[in-house]
Amino acid sequence: MGVLEHSDPELWQVISREQRRQQDTIGLIAAENHASRAVLEAMASVLTDKYAEGYPQHRYYGGCSEVDVAEELARERAKRLFHAEYANVQPHSGTQANMAAYFVLLQPGSGFMAMKLDHGGHLTHGSLVSFSGKLYRFIPYGVDRETELLDYDEVERIAREHRPKLILAGASAYSRVIDFERFRHIADLVGARLLVDMAHIAGLVAAGMHPSPVPHADIVSSTTHKTLRGPRGGFLLSTAEFASRLDDAVCPEAQGGPLMHIIAAKAVCFGEAMKPEFVSYQQAVLDNARLLASELQRGGLRVVSGGTDNHLLLVDLRDLGITGKAAEEALEAAGIVANRNAIPFDPRPPRVTSGIRFGTPAVTSRGFGPDEMTRIAQLIIKVVTNIGDDKTYKEVRQEVEDLCSRFPVPGLSD
Ligand SMILES: *Cc1c(COP(=O)(O)O)cnc(C)c1O
Description:
The chain is of the alpha/beta class. The chain has helices at about 5, 10-25, 35-45, 65-80, 95-105, 130-135, 150-160, 180-190, 200-205, 245-255, 260-275, 275-300, 325-335, 360-365, 370-385, 390-405, 410-414, and strands spanning about 25, 55, 60, 85-90, 110-115, 135-140, 165-170, 195, 220-225, 235-240, 300-305, 310-315, 335, 340, 355-360.
């Protein structure tokens, strides 16, 4: 360790305790991952000191020759990785990537269609607590009540009825393949633009394990820190048609100076995602998610839509008579970290919910395989069927710690 331990022990302790927490618990939050040591190094570099408003070769500051190279590397790698004509790697987060895309495709007050939050959508997809619901008119679509799958005929019907300027495809809690080609077809029928938010599945797309939205969407927005396993941040891809409008929409419309250390780390992440090991990693993420889903089902839990095609799954807890909140708290007491999540047509409010969401990107980065997933499923079942029993929590917690001790968190060890 470096100097922080002595210069600011109070803050240093927070970081060391967080390292311990990550090491000693099983992290099943579907949106989280463990960045590599290389990504962490780039993030912790002096590139954080540099102001670079503008774009490579067109900055509003001097001294940008080196950060220009970093940003060019990130842009070129993103384009190559996803076969896109244009990439913007400056968005500070997925939220700002979406903001910039809306600035290009919508006017204040325009109507846009997106997936309902409780069916798997995201706050930035039209929620009234987000700028997206305040500035624009949200027209919701969702999943079918019976199959819990996206109902494309219904999406088409709503699109024909409302004729939105934009249709947004993409989700935070949908465990099935999304048919971007069908979305394109529906958008074309009503003269709408298509935005795909692939924040969750970007790593799967990069590895060819989920159909790519790039050939179908006008603009693709994403994060870098979920399945893609990079630094916390966002990026945008598009056809050449939107290149200069998107550049302006990110900086200066949505943001000021870019985070050059994070952009450098994005370049590292895109480079890592081009390696064959990344494909094997994403295959293991999928295998682990499928196995976790089937083992939970074997143990009597109901998995929303009956399974998963990606890195996450949702469990409906209503048959057990417990809430998402109760399950989340009990699991955390036992060392298993996940999040409460609305299920489609959830009767309970968002702070309580009837579901819990599990994802496998982070544990797979630690090297967890089939044996561990099977055991984790058993431990989850033990906890959620013994809510309130401290002895159960303690027993599970002990086993979780033993399991975790065999799988170091990558960024801390390699
Ligand atoms: C996570 C997520 C975002 C937002 O990402 P932040 O970096 O947290 O702002 C946007 N869209 C979807 C679908 C997401 O899952």
